[in-house]
Design brief:
Bound molecules: tryptophan
Strand order of the largest sheet: 4-1-6-7
Order of helices and strands: EEEEEEE
Largest sheet: 4 strands, antiparallel
Radius of gyration: 12 Å
Distance between the termini: 39 Å
Oligomer: single chain
Shape: globular
Number of helices: 0
Structural class: mainly beta
Number of strands: 7
Helix content: under 10%
Length: 73
């Protein structure tokens, strides 16, 4: 598969989950990564991963800018 941009997720609280969802007919969780405050994950979309769900408070750096996900209060 062609090289895709990296996305960078920086956790702003403990226990942020980065969840990879499968590509294809079924869209299912296939991987969950737990990040604690200050930890960074660098990831790509791949032939196996079509979407990512970020649960918890984090900065998500993508080509179009920075999106901030919020934790539940
Ligand atoms: N094995 C997965 C893949 O190649 C690894 C992966 C890539 C991943 N990007 C991800 C896991 C994003 C979670 C979130 O697709």
């Amino acid at each position: 598969m062609a090289q895709t941009d990296y996305i960078v997720i920086k956790a702003k609280e403990d226990g942020v989950n980065v969840i990879g969802l499968t590509r294809g007919n079924d869209t299912k969780f296939h991987h969950t990564e737990k990040l604690d405050r200050g930890e960074v994950m660098i990831a790509q979309f791949t032939e196996h991963t079509s979407a990512m769900k970020i649960r918890g408070k984090a900065d998500v750096h993508i080509a179009s800018g920075i999106v901030t996900s919020e934790g539940k209060e």
